[in-house]
Amino acid sequence: MADVVLVTGVSRYLGGQFARALTRDESVKRVIGVDVIPPTHDIGRAEFVRADIRNPMIGKIIAQSDVDTVVHMNVIATPTHAGGRTSQKEINVIGTMQLLAACQKATSVRRLVVKSSAAVYGSSPRDPAMFTEDMGPKSLPRAGFGKDSVEVEGYVRGFSRRRPDVEISMLRFANIIGPGIRTSLTDYFALPVIPVPFGYDARLQFVHENDAIDALLLAATGPSSGITNIAGDGVITVAQAAGIAGRPLLPVPMPAAGLFGNLVKRSGLADFSADQIQYLAFGRGLDTRRMREVLGFEPGYTTRAAFEDYVRGIGSALPGTSALGSAVSGVAGTAANAISHVWAAGRND
After folding, report:
1. What is the pTM of this model?
2. Is residue 43 classed as helix, strand or coil in its secondary structure?
3. pLDDT tens track for 82-93
4. Which long-range contacts link 82-87 to residues 24+ away (Cβ below 8 Å)?
5. Distance in angstroms (rounded) separating the CA atoms of residues 31 and 8
6. Quick one: what percent of the chain has pLDDT higher than 70?
7. H/E element holding 114?
């Protein structure tokens, strides 16, 4: 039973929503939310403490408050939301190390819940149709959020060996989507024109933001489930998703996708990364039997329904769509010119 729960990352959208939902559970006596900046949204009756999980001070907060459950939600997926890639890695990896060190010393801690990601499986053409929790990636993520997630999970496994008395639930979420949350993928599908790797149509799985919060609530207050995939039923392809969103596709040759992604990123339209381009080419599927049989969780939204709810949130036309479309066209033209120069140079060689 969770009595005193500490939640990291409450100033971010999902962390704040989770903290507020947790305060509605009358069995939870106290909720402490920590982050480096005060939340601008409502976190219910949760007490906010300004603290950086990269600082050893987090250990004092856990010890002085007799925290018995820690919910780690401060693993950031998008570098622009963290102030850049360097800051993102420090928060994700160094922050997790410090938090786990504090939990290891605190005898009051009895449960740890970690919001992880299916990005640990990577994306490659050799992947199985569905990843179960005991499968490893065919190709390890080499950079960005995927690599951070692999490192975070490694530290959590090390913590579990040092503190076998602590119950651990590590939830590997498919891409979380919905009308309120903003991620690199929601920005991507909000573009007026959707760039896609030419010749590929990846299978995608989503989990609705409400389902993500409900799964975390169950992990914090219900049975411990260990490593668990969390996703809505079914899959949709990139082309189907673009069709639902009413966006035309812009095929980009795979060798030039990285260049195109960098140009889009620098233009401020969306946050592309190498691992996201891999995902858009090869996709990923998650087996969710453990989610139902061990965690006892049943999502309220299928993958398709979650995406449709997200589309209702963005609407068929965004403010400034005309300007945005011109910007995308400009990026596409720049990319095409750069690609032609690369190919010409290759022929000259």
Report:
1. 0.86
2. coil
3. 566 677 777 788
4. 85/144
5. 11
6. 82
7. strand 111-117
